[in-house]
């Protein structure tokens, strides 16, 4: 039987192509914006702007925005690729437990996001050298709360919380992957069990209803979590509640992840094999 390492390697070879493509687009965007700003002397470009009209300070003000924009694009691409593999008959014909395929799929996408984020920070470090010099790498990571030092204008990290921010980002990515898979699996099961022939529009409607329901439940749960944090803040003696968010996300990821694994084994695998 195919082992986990072989599955991971095969999936990584597919996802690396998308990582390479989107990173090249990211580089092109950086070069295009830089050249455009230098030629036109215009440093107010839609979502990107700077009060100081020089390229170094422009990127110091906007590297986070551009990074997040491409992170969202890459995460969406990985979600799409994940679901292609999850419902692919070719992958499910491999003589291996489908739950192992699912775990290798999620893991390879998580690693791909980490590699993509690291490559982005290499580019950001180069962009900030004119304003931050030798501290540019530390400044870049601290901008995301991922470095235990503070710089002027950036205060969203502390000596004790930056590790929890790293963990928080990993948990957020996993929760997105798990939730998208859950929506895909449940919508597929519902559409297959309908007494009439399902169409793409019906499937999209089911997905929309499930997403709206999930968002609505999150809008109810998260404020209660914030209220709990506010009420217990003095008792818990915390300066940043990110660690409590981590605990909450761990619980959610365990529940949704186990539910995905159960659906893969109980419903998705038999449906694909019996096509």
Question: How would you portray this structure in words?
Answer:
Strands 1-2 form a two-stranded antiparallel sheet. It is elongated. It has 8 helices and 2 strands. The two termini are 23 Å apart. With 275 residues, it is an all-alpha fold. Helix content is 79%, strand content 1%.
Order of helices and strands: HEEHHHHHHH
Radius of gyration: 22 Å
Low-confidence stretches: 231-240
Helical stretch count?
8
Strand content: under 5%
Secondary-structure-derived class:
mainly alpha
Strands of the widest sheet, in order across it, are 1-2
Q: What is the arithmetic mean of pLDDT?
A: 80
Shape: elongated
The biggest beta sheet reads:
2 strands, antiparallel
Helix share of residues? over 70%
Distance between the termini: 23 Å
**Total number of beta strands:** 2
What attributes does this structure have?
two-stranded antiparallel sheet; single chain; mainly alpha; 275 residues; 8 helices
């Amino acid at each position: 039987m195919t082992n986990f390492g072989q599955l991971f390697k095969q999936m990584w070879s597919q996802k690396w192509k998308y990582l390479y493509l989107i990173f090249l687009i990211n580089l092109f965007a950086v070069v295009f914006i830089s050249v455009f700003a230098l030629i036109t002397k215009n440093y107010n470009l839609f979502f990107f702007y700077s009060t100081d009209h020089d390229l170094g300070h422009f990127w110091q003000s906007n590297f986070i925005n551009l990074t997040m924009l491409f992170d969202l694009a890459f995460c969406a691409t990985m979600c799409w690729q994940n679901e292609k593999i999850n419902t692919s008959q070719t992958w499910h014909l491999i003589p291996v437990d489908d739950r192992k395929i699912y775990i290798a799929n999620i893991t390879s996408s998580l690693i791909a996001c980490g590699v993509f984020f690291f490559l982005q920070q290499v580019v950001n470090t180069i962009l900030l050298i004119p304003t931050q010099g030798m501290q540019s790498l530390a400044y870049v990571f601290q901008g995301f709360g991922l470095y235990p030092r503070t710089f002027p204008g950036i205060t969203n990290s502390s000596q004790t919380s930056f590790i929890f921010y790293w963990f928080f980002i990993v948990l957020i990515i996993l929760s997105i992957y798990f939730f998208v898979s859950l929506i895909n699996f449940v919508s597929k099961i519902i559409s297959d069990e309908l007494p009439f022939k399902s169409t793409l529009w019906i499937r999209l409607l089911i997905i929309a209803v499930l997403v709206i329901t999930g968002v609505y439940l999150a809008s109810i749960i998260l404020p209660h979590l914030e209220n709990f944090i506010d009420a217990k803040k003095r008792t818990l003696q915390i300066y940043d509640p990110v660690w409590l968010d981590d605990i909450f996300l761990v619980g959610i990821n365990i529940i949704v992840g186990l539910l995905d694994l159960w659906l893969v084994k109980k419903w998705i695998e038999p449906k694909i094999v019996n096509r």
